[in-house]
Model the fold of this input.
Amino acid sequence: MFGWLFDPAHWSGTTGIPVRLLEHLGYTLLTLLIAALIAIPLGAFVGHTGKGGFVIVGLSNALRALPTTAVLILVVLWAGLGDFPVYVALVLLAIPPIMAGTYAGVRAVDPVTVDAARGVGMRESGVLLQVEIPNALPLIYGGFRGAALQVVATATIAAYTGAGGLGRLVFDGLALQDFGQMLAGAVLVALLAVLVDLGFAGLQRLTVSPGLRPVGTGGKR
Amino acid sequence: MIEFRAVTKRFEDGTIAVDELDLAVEAGTITVFVGPSGCGKTTSLRMVNRMIDPTSGTILVDGKDVLTVDPPTLRRGIGYVIQQAGLFPHRTVLDNIATVPLLSGWDKRKARTRAAELLEIVGLDANFGKRYPAQLSGGQQQRVGVARALAADPPVLLMDEPFSAVDPVVREDLQNELLRLQAELDKTIVFVTHDIDEALKLGDRVAVFQTGGHLAQYAKPTELLAAPANDFVASFVGRDRGYRTLTFLHAEVPVHPVATAKIGERITVEDWTLAVDEQNRPKGWLSGVDGEVEVRESDLISGGSLYDGSTLRSALDAALSSPSALGVVVDEAGAVTGVVRADDVIQALAKARAAGEVPK
Amino acid sequence: MTWIFENWERFWEVTAVHLRLSVVPVLIGFVLAVPLGWWASRSQTARAVLFPFANVLFTIPSIALIVITPVLIGVKILDEINVIVPLTVYTVALMIRSVADALSAVPGNVIAAANAMGYRPLRRFLTVDFPLALPVTIAGLRVATVSNISMVSVGALVGLGGYGQLFTEGYQTDYTGKVLAGLIGTVVLAVLADGLLLLIGRLLTPWARAGR
Done:
């Protein structure tokens, strides 16, 4: 069953597993970067001002209902084959969870803390950047890591329109009725998802203040 | 120092939170705003550092109209302490305290040094500095809140129900600590509370707010107790305000001798005998025993509160709470020096009143 | 839009298949997730096992699960069960957490009061815990339903039915209108299902909006 996956012949060359893995990781990381650059400022701003929350929630829900396959195909039909349609489809997929997480995170900061931030003389930018966002980080990471899992899994579909990534193994295997190759694709995607999540979990540990960890596990030495 | 001139705050929904407030807070005093919820006390406080802007009227801090100062700059010059402290959970205690100095452009080392000093001033051990707020008790958090407010050494301190979220024992500690700090630092403090006892204890002057944003009375605690301006103030101050007045009187009360006996001694009990330990500290009363007996701790009737020579209130309470109707008087070391009687306290009160020490 | 009106019958046919393929997994998944979520809300061990397992299930791409399922359970690749099983798996994985969080969030004093009045465990669960957990549970159900409706389309990539067929056919024939028709159908279906669940939730939990 796992013969295909462990065949050394499949681990080299321009269509080998390492290349596919890197392509897949590339789609994932660039998608997340673009999506975060759009979704975090939007979610944070709306969360901070408290105005337009229904727009964020509505937009998130509408985008969630959008089938990624259809978006991918539509952009391919309009703009032609290549990586561009893949990024459009995946960024639209990644925006809702990140935006919702950021919005919820900023809204969830204790109003007493925010009141204190203004009371000690922080300007609005300081309140947002020095207090609200650092305190919202756990929920922002929650949304971001959720998006990362979805993007890793869904980037597989990119191969349907001829793009690269681990989806190639699944679709090529399907065309050849090669179950071993399909299974290899599935296993590698799941593995990559776990690794990516671990990576972001590490980043979260490094960047979130120990003061925000649940009481009991917090930095008492 | 702080002056409200015809200040009115009307919220967008039409409710009037503060109605034509005229009030002057003297420099170097604690002024307490007290009243039921919805009386405008917190709104009044928050207008001083422009957390809320008035609908009309003027607020002057040190002669300067606050509306002419940019809010963040204004707030950096005014200490602000709120309920539940409002510490930044993502910053260590030391960084929390250093917030305002850093905002005001101090260099990092100087801000840290100042923060460490303040930690000591508010009575916290230096090793608290590296902890996060979630690792502190409510009382400790509130001490850090006070330290943060004092960090840039502002002349004015605004305190919005700072001690209402902690338990009564800790609250009393924090109140005493605040009085101690104030004796050293001599700030102009505006303190908001709904607790009349806290107001009377802390305030040099107390402003009683009435629902609808009216200032009902602004006076010294003793005046408030002796001469409430209207029925609202009278009922808010409470039915036992006569008794509370005693808190502010320090008249001389005659101290009578009392029969004492050490634990383990064999004595003949006459009427009421006070049992004491080796250091002459009160342990309890013996009464209604015939003939010669040994004084055993298990036979004692436990005593009431002790009178340490402070206020008439504690003298009267000692007498009233004692099973023998004799209030035990102790010295600084806690040793028995005699007893006081309730009727002596009442006489001392009458004497003080005749001498004009009790405000009418 | 014109494609929809010109191919009315085909559109309804595809809609019916799409609805069946997305709703059946939600129902099965929900029924399975309630006892599992209840277990996770009661036991630390269950949480420690179920939550990471659910997370791993999420990381398997739907297209991969759809192509592997027939081999694992021995049916043909074109059987609808190949979509129903993976989507059920996702629904369970998502709903376990929702149900567990919802039950954990029921106020302890309410449970204590119910116990003090003499409720037995099963009756208390059915008449106190579960109803109070409904708002959060339904919120989770809405997410699961919407994401299922969107995910069914993936099945078309291996030749299964639903709106996804319109995507693949449109792609192969370079016919944008057909893809748009499927996309509109998916979004409308998702919005309707979401609204319906929202309404059901409101009718079932009138107390949730009281006192606002």
Chains B and C do not touch (no CB pair under 8 Å). Chain B has two domains: 2-239, 260-353. The mean pLDDT of chain B is 89.
